[in-house]
Amino acid sequence: MARAALSGLLIGLILLVPAVQAQTAAPRTFEDSMAQRSLACTHCHGAGGRAAPDGYHPRIAGKPAIYLYNQLLNFRDGRRHYGPMTQLLAPLSDEYLLAIAEHFAALQLPYPAPLPHKSSAELLERGRILAYQGDASRQLQACAQCHGQSLTGMLPHVPGLLGLPRDYLNAQLGAWRTGKRRAHAPDCMADIAKRLQPQDIEALASWLAAQAVPAGSAGAPASAPTSAPTSASASASASAPRGAQDPAAACGTARAPQRP
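^ that's the sequence the OP posted. Answer follows.
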């Protein structure tokens, strides 16, 4: 009996220790910051929004704030379709989405080197020509006309095209082309993507993904001049969708909420 009572006492003391420790330990503090709240984003988009290694969840760190804001709106309001994003954003206000966008836009983190590729030289050259010259015969303007001559974006709402995985670029250009991805009118990217053939998308995605992001690069101001267009890109520009000739025209962009 005595041994049983002693055993029971010891078990009770062992069970009591965690409770005492919990009472005497310093209370845990919660960091009420956007960095803490946005951990739900970085679970898929990688630490700090650097991108996930799967090739489908893109980098969001350092993207233009108004671009990120519009993509959050598009997921929430049904112009872009991905169930987990839609469910996550459904209860959030425009003002809160803008705060999320501004948080990630401020994270200027280094880019990794491009992944090795097996694309042919001919395919890559086709992608380079489309990116910088377009194709006047199909009224297809160059990517550089809106995304900047360095293809690193035009502030505050046109994103860079470098530093993105080939699979992600393929998927997004395909979604634009088939109407699965949309934006606010004028939806310039939808008009352009519908003129792309599958082999064009493969060439563009392969070439863009193979390019290193210039060190210290960030989107240029929308008013910054680009180098003179070639005759092909100038011809394509003449019939480009409204707003696509000038990034400042804010193709596919909603007005950000005004703060008091």
